[in-house]
């Protein structure tokens, strides 16, 4: 997502929230591993973006996330 590192972007945040909510609804009706992983990745990405917008620090300077295991082509991110 190139827009994540491009600075504050409320439209990207709103779009991420919408996508996350849609996938949460899908998880209730069709519980698949992809949807659970996708939701975690999107939620973690959104948290990073929101933290950057609040504090003004760059992605490279650190965050409250650390990368976890790799699942196919998707990085699973664990929250501390």
Automatic annotation (TrEMBL):
<keyword id="KW-0238">DNA-binding</keyword>
<keyword id="KW-0804">Transcription</keyword>
<dbReference type="GO" id="GO:0003677">
    <property type="term" value="F:DNA binding"/>
</dbReference>
<feature type="region of interest" description="Disordered">
    <location>
        <begin position="52"/>
        <end position="80"/>
    </location>
</feature>
<keyword id="KW-0805">Transcription regulation</keyword>
<feature type="compositionally biased region" description="Basic and acidic residues">
    <location>
        <begin position="67"/>
        <end position="80"/>
    </location>
</feature>
<feature type="compositionally biased region" description="Polar residues">
    <location>
        <begin position="54"/>
        <end position="66"/>
    </location>
</feature>
<protein>
    <submittedName>
        <fullName>Uncharacterized protein</fullName>
    </submittedName>
</protein>
<keyword id="KW-0862">Zinc</keyword>
<dbReference type="InterPro" id="IPR051439">
    <property type="entry name" value="XlnR/Xlr1"/>
</dbReference>
